[in-house]
From TrEMBL:
SMART domains hit by this protein: PGAM
PANTHER family, sorted: BROAD-SPECIFICITY PHOSPHATASE YOR283W-RELATED, HISTIDINE PHOSPHATASE FAMILY PROTEIN-RELATED
The species this protein was found in: Azospirillum himalayense
InterPro entries noted in UniProt: His_Pase_superF_clade-1, His_PPase_superfam, PGM_Phosphatase
Name of protein: Histidine phosphatase family protein
């Protein structure tokens, strides 16, 4: 039985003094914490397959870890952060003022409701699960280092733990944290999962959405 190990890293913090919503937007990350990056890099395996989303904060973080393979990471769009549509680039206060009805509907069930022209967290879980299964099957028996996002890491953990979207949203994922899920068997044919780490090394400085 093959054991495929996913090393899930949330990208470095994004400076966001205005508390703007930036799910699918593309702001830069702050990769200046060399001590945190070195501690994280020391935990990661050699000879791994590296994966990022297409958003630059994940690619910047992978490059800052400076490990073999990080500069040639696969770009997997299906592992991107949740798309908040018309709310991207707005603060939470601006969203509440400009879209009061949509805001009330969204917060009535944030797991299955979506922002205007955006996607729900349930939809994020579906696309992430498909990508994880596909890559697990393609790289069965390997280590996969995925430098991705809080939402996509929640979705991967939900897959491993068999969580509903509502339950998965209770998981907080810190910047520059390491979580790990292990798969036994074939990704496309089922198999079983275990969670061996959650938020290792990460810290929670204020709002980390």
């Amino acid at each position: 039985m093959k054991n495929t190990r996913w090393w899930l890293i949330r990208h470095a913090p994004v400076p966001n003094p205005g508390n703007m919503i930036y799910g699918r937007s593309d702001p830069a990350a702050d990769t200046g914490d060399s001590d945190a990056l070195a501690a994280l890099a020391a935990r990661l395996p050699a000879q791994a397959v590296w994966v990022t989303s297409h958003l630059r904060r994940t690619r910047q973080t992978a490059a800052a870890l400076r490990l073999p393979g990080s500069d040639m990471a696969l770009v997997e769009r299906a592992l991107a952060e949740q798309d908040f549509g018309a709310w991207e680039g707005l603060s939470h206060d601006e969203v509440a003022a400009l879209h009061p009805e949509e805001t009330r509907r969204f917060w009535s069930d944030p797991a299955t409701e979506a922002a205007p022209d955006g996607e729900s967290f349930a939809a994020v879980m579906e696309r992430v699960a498909g990508a994880v299964a596909r890559l697990t099957d393609l790289y069965a028996g390997r280590d996969i280092v995925a430098v991705i996002h809080g939402g996509s890491i929640r979705a991967a953990l939900a897959l491993a733990l068999d969580l509903t979207p509502q339950a998965a949203l209770r998981l907080a994922v810190a910047p520059l944290s390491l979580s790990r899920i292990d798969h036994y068997g074939s990704g496309e044919e089922g198999g079983s999962w275990s969670v061996t780490a959650l938020n290792a090394l990460g810290t929670f400085p204020g709002n980390v959405r």
